[in-house]
From TrEMBL:
Its cofactor is pyridoxal 5'-phosphate. The lineage of its organism: Bacteria, Bacillati, Bacillota, Bacilli, Bacillales. Residues 2-70 form the HTH gntR-type domain. In the C-terminal section; belongs to the class-I pyridoxal-phosphate-dependent aminotransferase family. It comes from Cytobacillus firmus. It comes from the Bacteria. Keywords: Aminotransferase, DNA-binding, Pyridoxal phosphate, Transcription, Transcription regulation, Transferase. This is DNA-binding transcriptional MocR family regulator. GO terms for molecular function: DNA binding; DNA-binding transcription factor activity; pyridoxal phosphate binding; transaminase activity.
Amino acid sequence: MGNKYDEIIVEIQSRLDDKRLKAGGKLPSIRRFAKEFNCSINTVMKAYSELEKAHLIYSVPKSGYFAVGTDMPKKQKPMIIDFVSAGPDKSKMPYRDYQHCMNQAIELYKEEMFQYSHPLGLPSLRQQLSAQLQDLQVFAPPERIAVVSGSQQALDLLVSLPFPNNKNGICVEQPTHFSFIDSITSRGLKPIGIEVNQKGIDLNYLEKVFRERNIKFFYTVSRFQNPTGCSYSNQEKKDMVDLAQKYDVYIVEDDYMGDLDTRKKAHPMFAYDSSGRVIYTKSFSKVLLPGLRLGLAVLPEALMKSFTQAKFAADVHTPVLTQGALEIYLSSGMFKAHIEKLRRQYKKKGSILKKAYLEHLPPNTSFTGGDSGFYSTVVLPGRMKAKHLVKHLQKKNVFVQDAAPMYLPEYLKENRIRLSVSQVEDRKIAVGVKKIGDGIRALAHSYL
């Protein structure tokens, strides 16, 4: 519950802060927020209860929850630093440009919107994606590309589909994002983990798993992994592809952060695959508008038929209007210009974060990642538990995430917190990290 609970609290506080939710304004219903955050009604109720205790909202029986009014001048409001939210910086999103593309798409695709489209996406968009992917060293013909309703849909379908190797085990990095773990376990499967950290991955152990555990596919985020923020070297990528070929294992490479990589010679695993073992997936959620729910999968010929059938059964096809708008946005050159700006912005944020770590974290604390500005973990000292630090920092208006739900039980680490600075103002990053360092020092006494 903890992660969604924190996210709901942060979101409401953010809406109060920037006046999207004014004094006396009604909050979203509990059912609506439960659906929006993909969590239980009980989680939303507990989050609202916490906000009510903090006198930020109040409830009216049979009417709902409302924002509390305040006459406190803006400059006196406490500074809230949200290291939990890992979406794109709202202030840097191309709303007007994309709105223009949407308007154009309505005119260009007005006929297509009155009929069913191809399950794998508009042919013209797939053609455009084929050209755009070449910038990432992914060379794939349009007919091998599937447009999906967010990369999570592609992952869900791949978990369910039978593969040509007739295996059923799924190997995942440890840690990895909990939504994919849930996708596997909800189907009655038990994921098999392999640990990753700042030093990379144990290739000898990965080979042992591939050799002995009947692995259908290995799921990996090869660049700026969630939650560690780590990336593999090109050599590690080549070695993993070689192992997959040797032991008849597929690799599902989730490269949703690839657009933000500033290293010119850093290629995806797909670029090293000559046998059709790597399935490449990508989302536009981190670099455009998450609500668009658009992604893609590059599939081997052997999976095209079954994936097409599964995609049709799931939603017939991804909405034509959003596909059309993305095609226009890509073909106009606006996407390329937007990405170049984002790379500079997030690289700067990552540099500020790592500098703040070195200045403010205690010597017995370590960290991973941070290069992209999106994901990083802090390893707490000794027996200190992340959940205790999370609660301590909430009282200081600093919100961080306990990384424990991102681990399988046999790999559980209770002394990791995940940070993202993607939505944190540059001036607040060092302030927040200092409070984290102070919190670690304050709690350390209770573990003596």
